[in-house]
């Protein structure tokens, strides 16, 4: 605010200077000089006429007329001091009222129409940006009031105007727009954040979340692609599976929705308050599939590799579930891109090999995992593999790939 007052004083001073400049640099008035020259010329002409009239005998007292002519010439010369005083007085009479008028109008109009209170409020909001941002980024359960959301939006837009390369700022603006159900603004802000930081998981997740709410099918496909990349990372945010489950349910892909919700249950555990909510979601999806509630189960498999494993990035990861006695014929199997390790995959009845024997029918099981290097399931030479111990259905399974055929 101090800068504003300094700038305003400078501008007003310049305005007053522009008003006074014509008086300061006023050209010298040559009227007196011209008048003197004219009087001299007239005086000389009159002397010539008097001489001619004297010669002709028309004038009897020539000297008296000459004295009168000289006296009239002297009377016509103005006093310099009086003239200078009048000029200075007339200049100040214009400059001083003009300066007062400029100052009064400038500050008067500003206080009337300048919205100074709004400017002060805007500056206070800008100073409060770090605190509001920290509150928005806090764990779930911390919510901002409507006024705080408006303040944060104003502060963010101000900051992004001067710092357009701030990906965190665009991410926050996108999240605020999501909270306000402003999908277009959210997509625009998240897109800018993604262009600046396309490998940031938080940005990818935010962008996917915004795109998932769009009406355009291409935007939704882009969201699924982003979520697919996030699933392949070493650490997968719970919200990724939540979005995948939501999308699957909306597309009436109920088995996939059940699978993702089951993964979420295994990630948070029964002690989490959200566990029961996920169970109700699973139950609802199973009802939509026409299944009997409680029969569908899944197997969560965490896969890791030992240090000596050297695998082609183009290889495939084959995960198969077998009966607890290690029967070679799998009950369920799935094929995934190799990705990174450790990683977690989930198999359910949708991965069953035979329609008459579902994965959920097993009471106990074991899991085998293989890195298929040539794309042919029948050949195993050179492939790396690992297998788990027998576990009961519902228990998490861990497999270390450490052997080679």
UniProtKB/TrEMBL annotation:
GO CC, sorted alphabetically, is: cell envelope; plasma membrane
The protein's gene is named ccmI
Keywords for the protein's UniProt record, in alphabetical order: Cytochrome c-type biogenesis, Membrane, Repeat, TPR repeat, Transmembrane, Transmembrane helix
Note whether Heme occurs among the keywords.
Answer: no
Q: What protein name does the entry list?
A: C-type cytochrome biogenesis protein CcmI
Pfam families per record:
Ig_CycH (PF23892), TPR_CcmH_CycH (PF23914)
Membrane-crossing ranges are 6-24, 91-110
Record-level GO BP terms: cytochrome complex assembly
Domain named Cytochrome c-type biogenesis protein H Ig-like: residues: 299-402
UniProt organism field: Vibrio aquaticus
The cellular location(s) given in this protein's UniProt record come to:
Cell envelope
- Which InterPro entries does the record match to this protein? C-type_cytochrome_biogenesis (IPR051263), Cyt_c_biogenesis_CcmI (IPR017560), Ig_CycH (IPR056412), TPR-like_helical_dom_sf (IPR011990), TPR_CcmH_CycH (IPR056413)
Which residues are in the Cytochrome c-type biogenesis protein H TPR domain? 119-275
